[in-house]
Amino acid sequence: MKRFLKYSIFIVFSILFIAVVGFYIWTQQTYEATGELYQLVDQIDEEDGWLTFEPTTNYEKGIIIYPGAKVEPEAYSYLAQELSERGYVVGIPTFRLNLAIIDKDVAKELQAKYKQVSDWYIGGHSLGGVAASMYTKENKEIISGLFFLGSYSTESQDFSGTTLPMLSIYGERDGLTTLDDVEESKEYFSEQAAFFEIEGGNHAQFGIYGPQKGDNDAVIKVKEQQNEIIDGIDSWISSID
Predict the structure, then answer these.
(1) I want to staple 128 with a disulfide (CB 3.0 to 4.6 A). Which of 20, 66, 137, 241 is the partner?
(2) Residue 136's closest CA among 158, 116, 109?
(3) Span 50-62, mean pLDDT?
(4) Does residue 97 sit within a domain?
(5) What domain range includes position 64?
């Protein structure tokens, strides 16, 4: 009996070990920024786990972008660079295991660093958007707006009945966050929500990291989709004032 019990315990721990190792390996198989991104971005500096882009002028508004699952933060550097040139300080965090949902509260680090910023807008791509909504739900008093990039709010993060400014930017040809997903999620958005569809856009081109499994092909260039995202976020924030 004791021998059987020891054998059973060994089997259980072996299965758990294999599962943990397998999960870790899966999280490290990331989507890296492509060469096209490095042709568009002047410089990328990482400090204390953040890629931060500061404007050359005085600023009072900040933007935090949570990457999608297993997507390297550098893939969103073009968005950050261009938004910083429009007067925002922009930060992209790195995450343990490359999953934003594990460290959803990391936004507080950047907010603590830039105390001169009076208005913070947070959002993310795909699973990063879900993590950003979780953070916002728990910290509404220090967030001025929430945005989703190829992502959406859920029943557990229900903002209906609130006046929180929200933005959903989604791609017409997104194979992972579909048009049906976006439509069905609208009931969980606030009264101050705006929705913007990128015609011909897909899921992967919310960053610049190449094709993604399960996605559809875009019929517009990645830079065109990126510029529409930048214009959409900037116009949305400007409309809140």
Answers:
(1) 66
(2) 158
(3) 95
(4) yes
(5) 31-240
